[in-house]
Amino acid sequence: MAQVFTAKSGSATFFSASPLENIEATSNSVQSILNTSTKNVAFIISIRSFQFKKDLMQEHFNEKYMESDKFPNATYSGIINGDFDLSKDSIYEVTSTGKMAMHGQEKEITAPGTFTVKNGEASLQSNFPLAVNDFKIEIPQLLFQNIADTVAVKINVIYQPYKK
Amino acid sequence: MKKILLAVLTLFSTTLFAQDDLLKQLQSQTPAKREPVIATFKGFKIINIETNETTPKGNLDFRVGHLFGNIFPESGGGLKNFYGLDASADIRIGFHYGITPWLTAGIAHIKRNQTFEGIAKLKLLQQKTNGGSPLSIALFGEVTYTVKDPKDYPLEGLEKMPHRLGYCTQLILARKFGSRFSLVVAPTWVHHNIVSPSDSNDVFSIGGGFRLKVTRSSAIVADYFYNISPTNLENHYSPLGIGWEIETGGHVFTIMYTNSIGLAEADFIPNTQDSWKKGGVKLSFSISRMFKLGE
Asked: What is the Cα gyration radius of chain A?
């Protein structure tokens, strides 16, 4: 049984409600690697891969807030707490604690996750809030009035046994 | 021996991975992608020069340009017209629409010479990161059509429709250096079907401009046109503009000083007769508001 699993083209969405307009973006190039014996897990997402409905919002997100030319990726590396077995069809509720890095800042977070193993295919979903201030992402009041300080993040990846 | 080595390596790679090593492995599998360089400039124009930027697909850019009169008394300004603020040298109201990410078309009305203007800009090459194209290249075209009454301008031959037309073609070469500084150079050809007998129908000019980002949302901008084949116009001066550009949400606001005489390329490139040195400098501003049409 494989102990290392990888995921390509996973999805990540973030959402923030504000009275003026909701801010929402999706990336479909989330990559992940998971070692089931050490329970280590890592994620990498290209900031430029986030697609917004408004082109200008996407430009501002990259240029002004995430500075994606300097900090092209968001990464997470952590350990999974809780038991799961990707070889057995079931649903496993777990949590993960680790380091989230983006915009040149690093922060320890704990997030819940759900492994769903169905017909031998293993996927992982995770929903968690992220405080933008933790990563020194400044959102001026002038631009987005009353924007929430936290955004809701959703991650969804499908793991395949790792082949070299 | 090989087998033992392999076994040890496998052991390391599968069971003894520290979590950071797992991340490093992931990063090494994710090569840096070539991404288009964004925000070389914050809109269609700097001051007088076109940029490589087009209007995003499905977006409508509503643009208002205003050029006040000369500020200083030696060029007709002074207190009597409140340093040019009471005199508007030119006003342009235009709509630019992004047909595709590569092609923008627009129409405008321009006060000077009672002109209607049609423009198009085509992106030919996009600067990219990580070993992609070092330059962005675009092509800009402008047609102007004056609706002046021939009776009021008997010398201009306006009875014939082609005499009312003017054209400008620009090849735009732009590059963003780092995250704050962008440069543009634009070889330009202006053609008029009819000009005064002593003037030339074709004018070749080279324009250059830059944007230097100072804060997150504002920048110093400047541009200049040098006519390689001079017009025979008496007292022609090269248009020089310098300004401060502020971006807020979907707006770009630029406030600037320039000696250019009008807002249409086919007009100010050959026809600028005001000089900075002689006080022929004007206050000007432009506002761009981007609307996303549909989904």
From this structure: 17
